[in-house]
Amino acid sequence: MPAFPGEVRSVKLTGVLTLLGVALVLIALTAGGYAAGAWRSRHREHELQLKLEASHEELQVARAEVARLTAVDGLTGLPANDAFQQFLEREWRRALRELTPLSLILIDLDHFKHYNQQMGYETGDKCLKRVGVTVGEVAGRPGDLVARYRAEKFIIALARTDGDGVLSLATKVRGAIEALELPHPGSPVADHVTASIGVATAVPSRGATWQEIELVAAAERALAEAKRLGRNRIARAEFIAG
């Protein structure tokens, strides 16, 4: 039996509504999928950000540890040569601003290679530790720096200290090392450990091109002179003006 016109329209409308419902469901599912995907993407991004921050923090800790290890001498516990160089450069700039003296004491244990050969390297290390502690105690003024320079050498940087002041402290340091009475058999200088010392002082002037490295060179020359004169003594570089 043929359908009435109204029934045809009803069937068509029902079909349209059904298709519309399906479309809405698909749209909702798609939107939900996009939302879920976006949430997962943001969550993943957040996780990556946290990992990145953690890695950065670990890197900073590692860098700080490397800086600490390179700044401290592993044997004596004193600041190492790198730390001394940084300190000297900083204090030189301060001396240049304030026009104040900056002095160095360079200490070299006499015939220490021979000491190691005679006493053994383990005993040599113990000797260096004892000397390092002693020098640190004698020259432990706040604001100054006692460092292991290299091998059997130690160095002291003294801010705002003139030639007379550095010579007085160097005399105390040499005496304190000798007073340890650490046996040094076969030494041509004494039967115990001794030290040769070079001191140098500079007062930079405004506009000077003189560099802090030249102060170190002056202390090295003074040390060489102390050795040339027989060791176990102090030699002083001429007063240097920047």
What does the secondary structure layout of this molecule look like, with pairings?
Elements: H1 5-71, H2 81-98, E1 102-109, H3 112-119, H4 121-138, E2 145-150, E3 153-159, H5 163-179, E4 195-203, H6 212-228, E5 234-236, E6 240-241
Helix pairs in contact: 3-4, 4-5
Summarize it.
With 242 residues, this protein is α/β, with parallel strands linked by helices.
Overview of this protein structure:
The chain has two domains: 1-71; 81-241, Alpha-Beta Plaits. 60% of the residues lie in helices and 14% in strands. Strands 1, 2, 3, 4, 5 and 6 form a six-stranded mixed beta sheet that branches. It is flat. It has helices at residues 5-71, 81-98, 112-119, 121-138, 163-179, 212-228, and strands at residues 102-109, 145-150, 153-159, 195-203, 234-236, 240-241. Helix 4 (121-138) packs across helix 5 (163-179). The protein is α/β, with parallel strands linked by helices and 242 residues long. It is built from six helices and six strands; from the N terminus they run H-H-E-H-H-E-E-H-E-H-E-E.
